[in-house]
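Usage

Read records sequentially. Each one opens with the input sequence:
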Amino acid sequence: MDFDFTWLFWGLPLAFALGWGASRFDLRQWRMEGRQAPKAYFRGLNHLLNEQQDQAIDAFIEAVQGDPDTAELHFALGNLFRRRGDYDRAVRVHEHLLSRADISRKDRDRAQHALALDFLKAGLLDRAESALHKLQGSAFEGEALLALLGLYERSRDWPQAKLIAQRLEDAEQGSFATRLAHYLCEEAELAQRSGDSAKALRLLEEAVQRAPQLARGWMSLSILRSQASDASGAFDALVRLNQNAPQNLPLAARALVELARQTGREAEALKLLQASDERSPSIDVTEALASLSSGTEAVRDRYLSHLEREPSLVITTQWMAGEALSGPVAHARVQQALEHASAPLRRYRCAACGFEARQHFWQCPGCQTWDSYPARRVEEL
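and closes with the structure output:
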């Protein structure tokens, strides 16, 4: 039977036409999808710039569905979820990225870092710690160590905080001597509460050697020696404080006077306090000097001397306590009014966040910043 080449003549053009039509259809569909994904991406970016996070998230979800292989869209979406407090969805996005086998090592480390931030923001400290440890040896190691340091400070795990701070200092990420000294002081307080005074003393001596400019170490050492009935050693610690951190002597002025009386070193304490007063008038130093003065007139003159150099409602209150008004009732009322008005001025204020407190803190309870409280009251700032 002879083959009819007529069918071949008509079939080849037909097959070519069908193939061309199919390719055109696929190309058109691909171009349509390609146009839709960038449009969704730019729409999400526009919402983000206008601080419309909910609309931006919807647009990025649409873009991710159109192009699920784009890692950048996943990162943008995960960061948006975290910023709006939707930590569960942020975690799912970044865990999905980590589960993919086709992303680069750089993107994998980036996803691991983002996942650790998700856990930190969500308050899942154990999972955040585990995620941060996995970033060792990556480009995010420095950031991870700083995050771990903050995490251990929040959980008050001072031994681990010391290890991380030492690693950061060894890696030349900055000086962490002051922080390390604070951690040693915190450990010393815990040891003292548990009754291990020897360990507390050893830790405080290490703290003042590591950071002699830190007033906390000398003050804590003075308190510990005083509790051990070593008043002379406690006084010497405050003398060393004045040598290394003279701007912080007002914090120890009252304790200095008490120890001076116990050891008979009032003249030495008076000299130190007068030198501090000459450098910069201070409410605490003036009150300490007044307590060392003999006689009502000397105390009155001490307060007036302060007021001549620096107006102070607190010192005025102290001065008024020794003045006679028109009668005891009037005197009591004026004194009470002055004390009420001056009470807020006795507070300390954090230089970082403005948090005010009646007592001086080494670490701000509001923003967790170390050494952000000046040694001067609110009225003196």
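Summary fields computed downstream for this record:
- The mean pLDDT is 82.
- The first strand starts at residue 348 and ends at 349.
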